[in-house]
Amino acid sequence: MATAGPRIYNLFPTLVGPMRDWAGHLPRIQGMGFDWLFLNPIHYPGFSGSLYAVKDYYRLHDRIQGGAPEHPDELLRGFIAEAGRHGQSVMLDLVINHTAKDAILVGEHPDWYRRDANGDLYSPRAVDPVDPSRVTIWGDLAMLDYERAEVRAGLTDYWTRYLRHYIGLGVKGFRCDAAYQIPAEVWKTLIERSREVDPQVKFFAETLGCTVEQVRDLCGAGFDFLFNSAKWWDFKSDWLLDQYDEFRWIAPSIAFPESHDTDRLAAEVGSQDTERLAAQLKMHYLFAASFSTGVMMPVGFEYGFTRKLDVVNTTPDDWEQPKLDLTGFIGAVNAMKAESPALNVEGPQRRVTSPHNPVIGLIRETSGWANGSGEGCSVLLINPDENQPHAIDPGPLLASTGGGFADFEDVTPEAAPLPFEPGRDLRLRPLEMRVFRARPAQSRPIELNHLGERGAEHDSATRAWMDELASRRVTIENVYPELDGGRFPVKRVVGDVMEVWADIYTDGTFVLGAAVTYRPVDEEEWREVPMTFVDNDRWMGKLPLTRNTRYQYSILAWRDVWESWRADFKKKNDAGLDVGLELIEGRRFVEHAVGLNEGEGRAALERVVERMNSLQGAELTAYALSDEPRQAMATYGERQYLSRYGCDLEVYVDRTAARYSAWFEIFPRSASPDPSRPGTFDDVSTMLPFIRGMGFDVLYFPPIHPIGRSFRKGRNNTLNPGPNDPGVPYAIGASEGGHADIDPMIGDFEGFRRLVKEARRHGIEIALDFAVQCSPDHPWIKSHPQWFYWRPDGTIRYAENPPKKYQDIVNVSFYRESYPDLWYALRDVVLFWCDEGVRIFRVDNPHTKPFPFWEWMIREVQDRFPDALFLAEAFTRPKLMRRLAKIGFTQSYSYFTWRNTKAELTEYLTELTQGESKDYMQPNFFANTPDILPPILVHGGRPAHMMRAVLAGTLSGVYGLYAPYFVCEADPYPGKEEYNHSEKYEIRHWDWNKPGNIVDYVTRLNRIRAENPALHKFTNLKFYNAYDDNILLYGKMTESKDNVILIAVNLDPHNGHGGTIEVPLWELGLDDGAHVQVEDLFTGQRFTWIGKFQHVWLDPQQNPAAIWRIRPPGR
């Protein structure tokens, strides 16, 4: 488990009096679970009396010495020891950017100080950013001069002695005041020298109020922690998460609800309403403790103190009467924090609710991507609204976690836990915050199920047939979703709520009941969710999908004995008929159900029987029609003529990356920053910040295995390679190994493992190419010659696609003598790379290999690694592409690459999103590949590259771009839709800063995708009217309509186009003249649209596309 982050209590020295009295506070602080004590400067101050104007660094402040006879060192040493016995380390405030003007150091080393034009000591000052004429000068302070090298050396030695002295007294940490005002190299030296004395001493950088650049300058200085600005967040803006992501690469951060430098939160809130005050203080402390690795709290916060701490005037007389007591709550928060791994590391943190959702949702992870690695995640949900409760569905939040976590549990202190289940809203009171903790999803071993014989034999086949029919008196048919009669699973993603529909009816006028029964395949117990009647014999149930695994589901239906009796009984009673016999009949139904139950069910039914026996006449009639017997029989009554749908269906629940991810394709051998040598895995590692900075989360490599030398191809697919030509990566196999080995040109397994680990740290997955083909030099040809095709003359048959010939590649035979050994060998190759941390495979030309093999292999892998994803690179006939998706491929390349006109795109995307394949086929829209350079990119230039990127990235939740796309390289090989000087045949060097690149544009596009959940799905796409044939208008919105995106794209890369568009106000329940707030997500402009008809103009040179976020009234 991750080491717990620091939980710091700021014991403000002059508020708590002489040091001899401080020990009295330690039991309370220990009870609240703090493990650090932070002391503001305790030294003897200068003439101003300010704690931060230090005169003598080796003498205690008179009010802290308090007349004690002990030497200051012994007094401090004793307190530190007592704090240690209470489980607390002591941290001093380290102020080395200035001293008091009358400091001893001024007399000893006057040349160590900055001077003004008159030669006087220079005081620190601050200029008002709004009104530069207003300057604040701290006249009691003198700034030290670190700019001159000779002075810097003396100062560094002086502070080294100071640090070593106090470390020798037991001090374990130092809060470095205004750390950004001291050069990083000074800090580095001081920290290194301090750790020569105590390797465990910690340094905390106070960097509040400075620029991002100043914080960056401290990177590498050796700080263990720095303080962040969470206290000032408005729970809306993006800046805090941007700061968090920027700072976490420098050092873990510490948040606080208030500090000695700020006003008291209780004073800001107002202390008259103690319930409101408690809610505010609890929410802000829980947020501070949960947002960062560490948390700090000043003395008095636990009691709602309102007086601001003053570095000059605060005394023990300022100790206030407590307005409330939060010590128990704070202790529970600190205990929860210490036990929650994700709250103690500065792992990835991001917002998982849409920008306009009133509930703020954050996810914190211990690492960038979870597939059983790491130590879990935490989800923070905050309702900062003081007046209104708000609800949120956990389903989209589950999806946002990526499907890599399971068993979400509410660990909010002092709160009854809430369930975290898709489709079941979480309701947060005003100012309420909830913390959920989850463990990494672990692959669980399961027993594979195979279809077998249909039950026991009977004496008579006729009787068996009759019994089977009799058991299905209630008809269940026209089930949705069901793929090919249950032959294949449908596909969904973690966090989805799958609606299961069916026609359910029977003979007569019975009242029916129905339920969806389901289970993850690795669990024995079947669960149920009820189905409700919709209309016309159509029923529907909602199945929550919480795990990345394979589920089985079916439908149960039965005659509801009680409801059937009750309906007839009510009709007869309403008609004034004698219902005495009916009441006897109803009681017998309940009595019969008693015998079918035990425990709680039996007791509930016995109470109904007892009550019916004790009543007569109108009272009995009224009770028989009441809710108590109705509920008891609904829960425990007999399910008469219980029928089960004819087969158990399956849904494969993928993790979120199956539906939403952005792929970046590169050849590792082209990743070198030096064009004179090939790239390696380590070179790719250096690119990870660039790739992640653009917003890509999947990094895909063509084959990385040894490349054959026989018949090696030269540049542009020539047959006469030069000695330095690297060969085609798809010609797999050489003396160095085959599919489970690495081309030594690009690295080794240690380098690959480093890359996988570093990629995960950046939130990126590595995807590998799985190409079932070999070079003539592949080791299998010698070890398993029976796996290949041989010609009559004894030569091996190389691959052909007449008239094309691939002399450097040979194909395997899946049947004959190869079966089943080759199947096992290929499966084991994929499992090998799964064990190396790879979970995504792009499969080359799967449509040219036997479909039964793929179905078997993918299931074998996913039964062991449910998070494994497979992308089918199959540009083939539509039915073959759909079959590949049915048999298990997670994603598929598509014809998007060749759909360019408005009519083509609309027709094709409507087919994909509305047709039957929407339940099992997820397209991955690659805008280019090493094999395909679409003509529109050739003649359309940079505008076409921008336009097609927007189409790919917003029409589909999954899309990809291959390296030359970013620099708009589109030089075609004559007569082909392929790149000239293709990277398949030679090493290329890409200059990402090349003039005309679209790196910034793609970065913005990916950020738009990430920030808007509506763009994470595929099937929510809708097209709208744009009255220009070159303008494609479409939109996506979340189910709750809290995120509404409208997109217009100019499909002509050469000319500007504009015209009237129809804003789909009707989708939001608005009339045609309604007002909506709009934000242009590319430009950041905000404005109001009035009415559904608006005008757009798109210039391909400037803005080939517009993406608008619409905020309806009331949101």
From TrEMBL:
This is Alpha-1,4-glucan:maltose-1-phosphate maltosyltransferase. Belongs to the glycosyl hydrolase 13 family. GlgE subfamily. It comes from the Bacteria. Keywords: Carbohydrate metabolism, Glycosyltransferase, Transferase. The active site is at D844, E873. One of its GO terms (biological process) is alpha-glucan biosynthetic process. Maltosyltransferase that uses maltose 1-phosphate (M1P) as the sugar donor to elongate linear or branched alpha-(1->4)-glucans. Is involved in a branched alpha-glucan biosynthetic pathway from trehalose, together with TreS, Mak and GlgB. The record marks D931 as: Transition state stabilizer. InterPro entries: AGL_glucanoTrfase, GH, GH13_cat_dom, GlgE, GLGE_C, GlgE_dom_N/S, Glyco_hydro_b, Ig-like_fold. One of its GO terms (molecular function) is hydrolase activity, hydrolyzing O-glycosyl compounds. SMART domains: Aamy. It holds the Pfam family GlgE_dom_N_S. Gene3D superfamilies: Glycosidases, Golgi alpha-mannosidase II, Immunoglobulins, Phosphotransferase system, lactose/cellobiose-type IIA subunit. It comes from Azospirillum baldaniorum. Homodimer. It catalyses: alpha-maltose 1-phosphate + [(1->4)-alpha-D-glucosyl](n) = [(1->4)-alpha-D-glucosyl](n+2) + phosphate. The gene is glgE. Alpha-maltose 1-phosphate binds at K713, Q773, D808, N845, K984, Y985. Its EC number is 2.4.99.16.
